[in-house]
Amino acid sequence: MKLNPNRLFVAxxxxxxxxxxxxxxxxxxxxxxxxSLSGHMMHTNFHGMAWSxxxxxxxxxxxxxxxxxxxxxWLIATLYNYFGRSDG
Length: 88
Description:
mainly alpha, membrane, transmembrane, transmembrane helix, DUF5676
């Protein structure tokens, strides 16, 4: 089975964009809880730190994470197809 790298790029980029927007909304709604959750996820203590959210940063993060995730998915699909090809 071959993967379509372009379709996977788009699918992953959209999925990451949705996750980014949900995470951004949760930080806006419950910043303290999200700070604690982030600390637990990274095995560290973020108490005393603060979120730095502004519209430009939100948009920049949305594009950078979506495009880099999509590009990684494209590369994975391309390598998957290359190494999975039939030589016989």
